[in-house]
Amino acid sequence: MNFGIFTTVLFGLFAAASSQTILSPGDVSLVGYASDSPDAFALVTWVPLEANTVILFTDKGWNCTGFNNGESVIQFTAENAIDAGTVLEYYDGDEENSTEWDVLSGGVSFSSSGDQILVFQGTVESPTMLYALDLTGGFETCDEEMDSRTSTVPTGLVEGETAVTWEHTDNVFYRPWYSTSATLETLKEWMTMDKRFIRTSSWRENYTLPTSFRALNGSRGYKNYTEYIPGTAPCLFLSGHDGQLEPADIDDRHHGCYVDGQCVWNKTCSPQSSSECRAVTNNDENTQDIARIAADYFEQQTGQRCHLVVSRLARNKLDPNRELDEAAMGDADAIAAWQDFHAYATQATTAIENDCGSGLTIDFHGHSHPEGRIELGYKLSDTQLNYSDADLDDLVHTTSIRSLVTVSGANLSTLIRGPANGANPSLGSLFMESTLYNNSGYISVPSFDVPYVPEDEDYFQGGYNIEQHGSEDGGTVDGIQIEFPRWLRVDKPDYASQTDMLQAFGFTILPTFLESNYGFIGGVCPEATTAAPTATAPSPSPSPSPSPAPSP
User: Fold this and answer.
1) pLDDT, average across residues 404-419
2) pLDDT classification of 206: cutoffs 50, 70, 90
3) If 0-12 CB within 10 Å is exposed, 13-18 middle and 19+ buried, where does residue 417 land?
4) What angle do CA 474, 477, 482 make, to 5 degrees?
5) pTM (global) more than 0.85
6) Contact in structure between 420 and 444 (CB atoms under 8 Å)
């Protein structure tokens, strides 16, 4: 490398490529950073890049008028066109770095006591700032004394959106078991949330960064608290207990008050009763991402996509799997978000009925019961699951899969705990027998092998979501609640168990269940007249207008 040439380049005398993509703030985000050997970083581009596009990176701080002196500048030059969503990685001193990377000045040495990395186009003297990540715990102000580790918010960037600051840690990486698909607006917001990143003082030997992200067509409701990704298959995924937004202007939910024999749900009542009016406010960890990833795998297998509705509010702010009073506790913003969640779900089930005649809502949840089974809820109690097949069949009018008994022609007991190799396999048995990625399958209840809940064991039978968006009270879209055990959900270096289970679910379990019981064969609904399209992001259906916040 001719250092003199690159010094000249650095100070603004290089000629721009004949054609390149001119980027704006927010067109790129940082998804990885490491200050432990080797120093490294990774960037995702949200827009396509033309060949010859140049992007510059530096650990120089910004002092309100320009860059501080010293430190390194690294250049990326695209040799070919690059798709939107692609992740670009740089490792200092790694011979496997592509020829698209050059160190223009300085030695790459991010401080292990905290540093920043700034992304820009142009020149050091006249930059267009694109993104900033600070890991010192906060940006400085213009009147504060600066050193080599600190920076103000670069000109043209917005703190919390395109200029992100987190408490110091040596290394941060986007969690590899988290989803990489959402609306573009949500994807960009994820990159500002430290809870979606691994923060570690050790190198990431056990982790692999995503190679790409995918922006999907969709809608977001009031204040972006709800997201709807329309689908093309006869299935709807709901995620209501794993939102990550905790706006300060929505007070936390708490237990209700027991007054005159009934629960009063508001945020000012007293005294609260945890025994009579208990409110659960903890998230079902990772279930939002499980639902999103399952939808991706199903699409890869079938060429069609399940509808998806996600509450992005944390459960301590809203619980959409409850009736409105308990769910929102009178908060105007939470009420609007609850209304959006169920309006989107109704829109999806209506589309399923119109396009396919019948279908299935799956509500994603998580539990911590010591038995560690996958629990399938059909709005039947653990006591009812202990009934004989004949007695269970008589409960068809009280279950959330009432329509499926008519659509499939099978008995209720068969649909709930029939064998995986039968004409109408149950979902639990398909989990049990799914050995493509796991030699032992996934123990589930109810299923052919575990037909009922053993005495004195806990079990979730399904809640408000499948009551409203299943077929118990009519309609032809059924509802099943899936409760995933903690060992399939929690963060850990060995996240392969979750990946294997979701691949099994998306590639084999759900396609088999829909084919056998709903006639969804080869990605085609039984009432459809044309072949399924190739796997592309679906066009959004007309979405409900965001709900106005009601008067408090």
Assistant:
1) 97
2) low
3) buried
4) 115
5) yes
6) no
